[in-house]
Amino acid sequence: MGLGNFFKNLFGSAKETAKETVEKTEVVIDQAKEIATELAAKAEEYVEKTVKDLEENYPEAKEKVKQIADKVEETFENVVEEVKEKVHAFTAPSVEKAEEKVEEIKEDLEERTTTEIKRVADENAD
What we know:
Helix content: over 70%
Structural class: mainly alpha
Shape: rod-shaped
Number of helices: 1
Largest sheet: none
Strand content: under 5%
Order of helices and strands: H
Distance between the termini: 160 Å
Radius of gyration: 49 Å
Oligomer: single chain
Number of strands: 0
């Protein structure tokens, strides 16, 4: 009978250990459910509070964003104008020199054309 008792005790204690493990697991699962329920409730409260805050502060935030956009636009316009002025200041002397040179060439060409016309006219008059 000793062998029968041995197996009975062996399988009986394994069965008891399994039963205890299942019970402990059930307790842990129940605790996890309670914690998850508490966290879900807190998250829901937080979301509700955040939505309420956003609804209350939306007009203010919208106005601030509009003010910032206006400032950005004004700054951009100022930068564009400043760049135009700097480009003009940088290129103006060259443009003036080119215009002067064109005027000199034009005057020289007119003078040469007039001289050539007079020369041809004088040759044909003879």
